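This part of the workshop introduces the protein records we will be handling. To make this concrete, we reproduce a full record directly below.
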Amino acid sequence: MTPTRLLVTGGRVLTMDPALGELPTADVLVEGGRISEIRPAIDADGVHERIDAHGCLVLPGFIDTHRHMWQAALRGSGADQTLAQYFTTVLHTQAPRLTADDLNLGNLLSALGALDAGVTTVQDVSNVAKPTEEHTDALLDALTGSGLRSVFAYGHGTAGDARRVRSRRLHTKDALVTMALNAEAGSDDATRRNGALADELDLPTALHVRGGSPVSRLRRLGVLRPGTVFIHGTGMAAGELELVRDSGGALSIAPAIEMTMGHGLPPFAAAATAGLRPGLSVDVEVAAPSDMFTQMRAALQVGRFAVLQGHADPAAPLLTARQVLEFATIGGAETLGLADRTGSLTPGKQADLIVLRTDRPGVAPVYDPVAAVVSAMDRADVDTVIVDGRILKRAGRLLHAGLPGLLARAEELRARMTDGRPAG
């Protein structure tokens, strides 16, 4: 149940709102699921729920702009895989063995793993085959039941099923779960059909791009649409990222996966040169952890390394910890077109916020709170998670009644996938 009035007291508040900045000590008042006030010493009269954040950092929840959530059912099984091996093993061999119930398990496990790590919004780029409506609904039921804010980027199904989801399940633009279209580029005709379907359903699109001139191709085909999230963007020809910017598109970078699987150099310097502020993403949980601390550190490390060691434009500015935290919060919200409702602690926005402890020996003392989040913290420091005004994690404990049963289902699936038994 969502408390009508919720007060988070006494924390050091990193609003990620340039107009509000950082407040050394302040309270955050939430009313009806929205942030109504941020200032010191707010009157607590009439508050239904109170969270003590003294000695803690309070900031907007992290935003993951691209994750294939169903793959949490196979979590960690492909840590040593290259991209080619991932295609062969995960997408072409393991995925067809998963039932609708398995897909529900994967999406729910991924959603809860995100929340546990302080990730309050995820774009689920749903790149698993949807042979029946049951499979689609199993994925969606997991999202809607988790409490996570999410964008369900429908893919690998049929146009008819996408129309059904849009008209019957995800038709409200300001709902907790909204819809996009995973419009991967195929033949020219297929690419035009994807664009036409996105126009018909009034949906933003997301697609993976690497190398060459894929953005120019979309422009040539007449389907370069504003609001498109371009994923990876590694190794593309000169001018492609500028075309993303000029078209009203956005960039999602998955630095950990791009380095370990071989996508190419994460294009942080190129994005800065093109005037793009990217979002960060986990991508695949078969090979990467599902927290944003990992992604922020990978981004800071590879972004600076590339410039300092001559692998990127040496004139590009060096990434800073603050920029990386922006990528993981307000930048992610901008990438997904959700900056009007989340990504910063701003009065009037939805109350998606996290409380991070600073009293562990691996974190204290905190000289610079932004640097502490980016360089020192991990999911163990996530004390409280609130989405849409609802408390989903408190005092370090995820509040999901069905968690033991979910973990048991995950272990049963692991055993079946390992020994090759069919579902049943």
